[in-house]
Amino acid sequence: MSDRGPQDTLTTERGNLARLAAALGTGNGAKLTITQGEGVGREIELRDTPLIVGRSSESDLRLLNRAVSRLHCRVWRDATGYWLRDLNSTNRTYLNERPVVEARLKDGDNIMVGGTVLQFGEQRSVDGDAQNQLYDLVTHDGLTGLFNRRHFETLLDQEIARSRRRGHQFVVASLELDHLGEIRDRQGVSAGDELLKRCARLLQLELREEDIKARLGDGEFAVMLPETPIDEALPLLDRLRLRVGGSEFNVGGVVVTTTLSAGATLWTKDVASRDQLLKSLDGALYKARHGGRNRVASM
């Protein structure tokens, strides 16, 4: 694997996206994409038959979260377009943060069912002029496959609004690989990239499917733990720290080890904004770093 810098990676990603745009052709129709919660990343094609979302095995899209009713909501199409209807669910169906009984769907609308967010998208023709727009819509980090910072902040705003509305709390944590720069100096940029990918994979394996995982910077990850109190989050993060610290990674025939520092903070209704939450998160990570690294700290 040859070493490459950030600009090379960005150029490659832009080229891949341009080829993707050309390959999309002129397909029509609509789909739901799970952007948060159970099954994140999954795409559901909408057809002529109605789609029922719920916890029951009779549902077309089954979500096992306890906040989801057996038959929660219905999506269907008529001559005027696609529609959403709540099926007398216990916790209601939300469209763009507002409870609805019935509403017509527009491209980009967000449907919230329990802890799951489904984005409605209409598939249209994609031409060369749309390639830059396609790039702007990318939500994942090209190296690790986790969400990127921009999309993480969008999901964070959604979770703040949802938790404020329902009176829930949640935890956000910032995770940093210790001494990544030294590993890059000794083993090369490629080795550092491979280590980041392996650690991202550990995050995916160790955390719940509904937990949000993102890459914020070079060696910094973030996780969001919906409806999780701080006394449950801290042991979970410490297990993750021990898992990373106890692993040996074979990178290009060389055994590489690293440790993890983590800072965690609890969102409550007293936190006024996303910026205030992220400032508290920075303080928690600073506390872990300057406490000797390879530890979990909270604020």
The SSE string, one letter per element, is: HEEEEEEEEEEEHHEHHEEHEEEHE
The level of helicity is 25-40%
Give the uncertain stretches in residue-range form.
1-11, 21-27, 125-129
Mean pLDDT: 84
Strand content bin: 25-35%
Strands ordered across the widest β-sheet: 2-1-11-10-7-8
The total of helices stands at 7
Largest sheet: 6 strands, antiparallel
Structural class: alpha+beta
Separation, N- and C-terminal Cα atoms: 40 Å
Number of strands: 18
- Report the principal-axis shape: globular
Radius of gyration: 21 Å
Keywords:
299 residues; alpha+beta; six-stranded antiparallel β-sheet; five-stranded mixed β-sheet; globular; disordered N terminus
Describe the protein:
- The protein is built from 7 helices and 18 strands.
- It has 299 residues and is of the alpha+beta class.
- A 6-stranded antiparallel sheet has the order 2-1-11-10-7-8, with no helix packed on it. Strands 4-3-5-6-9 form a 5-stranded mixed sheet, with no helix packed on it.
- The protein is globular and about 65 Å long.
- Mean pLDDT is 84; it is low at 1-11, 21-27 and 125-129.
Topology of this structure?
Layout lengths: L5 H19 L4 E8 L6 E4 L4 E4 L6 E2 L10 E6 L2 E6 L6 E3 L2 E3 L1 E3 L5 E4 L2 E8 L7 H6 L12 H18 L3 E8 L2 H8 L1 H18 L5 E4 L4 E6 L4 H16 L3 E3 L2 E3 L3 E8 L6 H16 L6 E3 L1
